[in-house]
Design a protein that fits this description.
Elements (H helix, E strand, L loop, with lengths): L14 H5 L7 E4 L6 H5 L5 E6 L2 H12 L10 E5 L2 H7 L6 E5 L20 H11 L6 E5 L3 H6 L4 E8 L4 E8 L17 H20 L2 H14 L10
Parallel strand pairs: 1-2, 1-4, 2-3, 4-5
Antiparallel strand pairs: 5-7, 6-7
Bound molecules: S-adenosylmethionine.
S-adenosylmethionine binds next to strand 2 and helix 4.
């Protein structure tokens, strides 16, 4: 895992909610990278692409990933400095990608003045959301509720969670253009809060211990039954 980076609006304490929604994918595209808390904490995809319009953000990522110790390396990460909209408009999608989008907040939902060197006005939100609405692959968008989002992402599913800011607790919304998946790309963060995650983790460890303790023939029969009864779905899902 790449070392954490503190970043305004960063998802350092809430990335689990986003990862717990991610269907299996081959290519991961995070379009407004910032400190990239989601990318840093999710299981890497075969290929990952991180984009940010701020050259200082991208330079910091390049410095950190140039010659990392092996335990902080992130496999096959392509960094792009540029506008998300231009990248998405040009990219040749195959459908096995997952796009995660965490743009600067809509000006009317912000409690703080401008915090990013590259920021968004209302027209930028309109351009981005109109483009996202047409993408032919699973997309997850983070933000605070606003009528513009409901209008331009009409028909998308939503999930909300509480997130601490430096001053209070606010409700963040995730908009996504697919049904909540039965199979996750990364199931290590399952659970809505710390306690639930601990409980699920321990339950999984107990199950794994029982499988490990089986004699090899019994384990093989069990693995065969599991495979026949619950075949693993292909990587991409349809939108
Ligand atoms: C809300 S922050 C992302 C925080 C990130 N999710 C994290 O965990 O740290 C938004 C980012 O979008 C970048 N940005 C602003 N306009 C952009 C654009 N048109 N295309 C790509 N990135 C942009 C900003 O530089 C900033 O880093």
């Amino acid at each position: 895992m790449i070392q954490p980076m503190k970043y305004p609006g960063g998802k350092g304490k809430t990335y689990q909610h986003i990862i717990n929604l991610m269907p299996p994918h081959r290519v991961y595209i995070e379009t407004h990278l910032g400190g990239g808390a989601v990318l840093r904490n999710k299981r890497p995809a075969e290929h990952s692409i991180g984009i940010d319009a701020d050259e200082r953000v991208v330079a910091q990522w390049r410095a950190r990933t140039a010659d990392p110790p092996t335990d902080t390396a992130y496999p096959d990460l392509e960094l792009i400095c540029g506008r998300a909209e231009e990248f998405l408009a040009r990219y040749s999608f195959l459908g096995d990608e997952l796009v995660y989008v965490d743009p600067p907040y809509h000006p009317e939902t912000r409690r703080q003045p401008r915090v990013y060197r590259c920021d968004y006005d209302v027209e930028d939100h309109v351009e981005l959301l109109s483009l996202l609405a047409r993408l032919p692959c699973p997309v997850i968008v983070s933000g605070y509720a606003h009528p513009l989002y409901d209008e331009l992402l009409g028909g998308w599913n939503q999930r909300t969670f509480q997130a601490k800011t430096h001053t209070d607790v606010r409700t963040e919304t995730l908009w996504f253009n697919f049904e909540p998946p039965d199979q996750l790309h990364d199931s290590r963060h399952r659970g809505d809060n710390f306690r639930e995650r601990q409980t699920l983790k321990r339950r999984m460890e107990r199950l794994q211990d029982r499988v490990r303790a089986m004699d090899p023939a019994e384990r093989h029969a069990f693995a065969q039954w599991l495979h026949d009864t619950y075949p693993v779905a292909p990587r991409s899902i349809s939108v």
